[in-house]
Each structure stands twice: as structure tokens, then as C-alpha cells.
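lol ok so funny story. i was supposed to be doing the assay writeup but got distracted and ended up predicting the structure for this chain instead. priorities right. anyway since i did it might as well share w the group, maybe its usefull for someone
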Amino acid sequence: MDWKSLTFSYTKTNTMLCTYFRNGAWTPVESRTDDTIALSAFAGALHYSIECFEGLKAFRGKDGKVRLFRPEENAMRLRRSAEFLGIEAPSVEMFVEMCKQVVKENLDFLPPYESRASLYLRPTLIGFNPQLGVASSSETMFMVLCSPVGAYTGGNLEPINCVIARNYDRAAPNGTGSHKVGGNYACSLRSLNIAHSQGYKAVLYLDPSTKKMIDEFNSSNFFAIKGNSYITPLSDTILPSITNKSLEDAASYLGMTVERRQIPVEELSTFEEVGECGTAVVITPVSHLDDKPTLESEEVTRYTYVEEGCGPKSQRLYDFITNIQYGEIEDPFGWTVEVEL
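and the output, tada:
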């Protein structure tokens, strides 16, 4: 396999793992070579979006060891999403063990250290039983899938152009925005497709209540650098990103001030660096961000941050996180979990 040419896209691997919650207990974990599933056409996942998922990565380190990055955090976030949906989720221990197992069974697809690529894991929980009424599913299916990936945007730390979607929302106040459920991503597709047709790579949403504060991008959290401060939004309608949480800890460890607070749109003009952050990207710098009255409008206010590459403080944070993930420096936080081969 040409590891250097990997993008963030699907590649068939050896196996996937699955288990079912029925009659108050989980069935034994199955390892399947076929990554298709059979379920009732009346399954709750299909009709009422009773589904939540996670994303995390396995890395082959400089020392030859294989590491997962903060899988317990993903397990706890999945359980939180499942609780919101009213469905059963695996324990933290079961989640982590299945992640380790799927890595072991697909080592052929774990990219070598030199490639700077990784094995992406997609734990997924769906409402499985057939149902007609709107209700939480009584049976669930938990799957752990994997695929080798490169950078989400097709190149490490290549800056992207973005646009604010003032006339669209990703999540509603008191809704599902802070949970990793599939419906949140479906809500972003209309505005994202319009933005793509105009040459933008990503969409930034404002808070759905007032349209005055920065919320998050379509697939990642927002962060900014001002002076020696790492700034990220405080909002109950955005997903609590594990990568963003890690970057906050890293920034503090490296002597920066961390500010999690409301960010007025007008403050965009004062930032030195702006970026997306998430599992797939770690950090993707923003070259310029356009603000329009509506996505369809030709009137534009442009905020410019970098012409090429990445800002120095974002680069330092990116290097720190990825050096931990690839075992190039000591992990001062105990974030990584070794997969014993």
C-alpha cells in the first residue's frame, strides 16, 4: 500500500467487531471479515436517527509500539451520547478492549511510523430493533470499524478557506449539539454543500440563539491564538472535542494562557491564528475566513490569518500532540494506551 498517498477515506480492512445488547446483556464479541451488516428495515437507526459514534486513532510509534490516543475519553463521550438517546452503551472497559482488539486484527493496515499516517477507528452504536413508534431502541448494536487514513484535508497543516453560515444552524439550543450523534452532521450538509460550490473547505457556525458568538465548524471545534492565549468557545451547543481538550492541556503545559469563553464574531479581526481541531485533523489552520449576511450573498467581510503553512503557536501545539501520539516524546499526561501485540 502507498501509505503516503492516503487521504481521509474508506479502505477495506481485515475485520470489524460487533456485539448486540439484548435482554439486558451484551452478546459475545464477533469478528467479521464482511463489513456489511443486516438489520431490519424498521430499525430505529434508519427512521429516527438513533445512532451515535466516535472517532479515534491508533499510531505506530517511533519506538515500534502501537498506541491509542485517549480511548477512555471516547468511551465516556459515547456513553454520554447514548444516555441522551436513551439506549444502552458498552462500558468504558469493553469499549477500550474492543478498540485494542480491532487494531490487533488489522495490523496489516496500521501505517508505518515514517508515513505519519494512522489507523482510524470508528466505534458506532445504533438502535437495532424494528420499531414503528418514536421511542428509544430497546436493542442496540455496537461496532468497531477501522480504516487507514492520511490527513483529513489531504495534506498536513495546509491552510483552508472557510465561510460563516449565518443563515444556517448545525444544532439547536438545548438540542443534540453537544452529543456526537449522526443527525448533527446531517444538519450541516446543506450549508456545507453550498460552501463547497463556492470554493470553501469548511463552514463555521454561530450560536443558534443570538447569532453573535462563534460556535464550531461543521466537523471540528474552533480555536484561535491571540498573543500567548489559546482561545476556544464556551457553548452548550458544540461537541466537547477530545482533541480540543488535549490542546487546552498542552497549551497550559507549554506556558500559554487558556481561555474557554464566549467569542463575539467581531473578535475575529483581533486573532493572529485561527484553526479547526479534531481527531481527523488535530489542527487545520485557517488561511482566511469570510463573513456574509447569508451564504448565498456576494457581500463579504474577510478575515485573513496565514497565507501558507501554519502559524507558529498552532504549529507548536500540533507538534506537541503528534509527538506524544507517535511516541517521540514522553507523554506527561498519561494519555496514550499501548496495544500489546
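Residues 182-197 form the longest helix (16 residues). Helices lie at 44-48, 71-85, 92-105, 182-197, 242-253, 312-325.
back to the writeup now i swear
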